[in-house]
Structures are given as C-alpha cells and as structure tokens.
C-alpha cells in the first residue's frame, strides 16, 4: 500500500474514533468492533463526517425505517455541505448497495453476524 493510502486510512480511523466516541449509542451494541472505511466507493471529501456517521448507523443496523432515515440523513448532511448532487448520488448508491441481505462489509447491520441485520428485538 502506498504512503498516500495509509495516510488516508489513518485519517479515517482518527475521525471515526472521534465521532464514535461522541455518540451515545443505544444498547445492545453489535458484537463486531466498529470500523469505518469512510465514504465507501466515493472519495473522502469534506463530507467524510457524514459518511462516518452513516457507517455507524449501518454498523448498528435495525429496522427498515431506521435504514431509510440513515440514508436520508447522509444525503441531507452532504447536501448541507454544499454538494447536493453528490448527496443525491450517495443516497441512491447506499439504497441500492447497502441492503442487509448481501454479505458485504458495508451492508445494513454489518456489525452483526450475517444474516442478522440488527438486534433481535429490531427485525428489518
């Protein structure tokens, strides 16, 4: 891996830790440790905080409505930073690619063992 990529990964890890540490998450937490890759399949622009908060929601998982709300919040957050079109594309990207039933590292509920998409008391 090049020094460029390691530097970006370190930056994402640092920002992820800061954001994760400041959020009071409901219990139970997923069994897998939270890890963000920043803006999956998108550049990590000045909207990276939006992507990390979205990753936290996806790691937690939960209901269909919670997923929709997380995706809307991502679009809104990126748009409010002045990137309305980027927010639009990100929204449709996560709606199509973040489904719970694909065993990807970025699926809805990725903090839980596949195929679980959230706590047992919150069926999708």
Record keyword descriptors for this entry.
mainly alpha
Number of helical elements: 4
Q: Structural class given helices, strands, pairing? A: mainly alpha
The total domain count is 1
Low-pLDDT windows of residues: none
Number of strands: 0
> What is the molecular shape?
globular
Percentage of residues in DSSP E strands: under 5%
Secondary-structure element pattern, one letter each: HHHH
Distance between the termini: 37 Å
Chain-averaged pLDDT:
93
State the assembly state of the protein chains.
single chain
Describe the structure.
Helices cover 52% and strands 0% of the residues. The chain has 124 residues and is mostly helical. It has one domain (7-22, 45-124). α3 runs antiparallel to α4 (84-97). The radius of gyration is 14 Å and the shape is globular. 29% of the residues are buried.
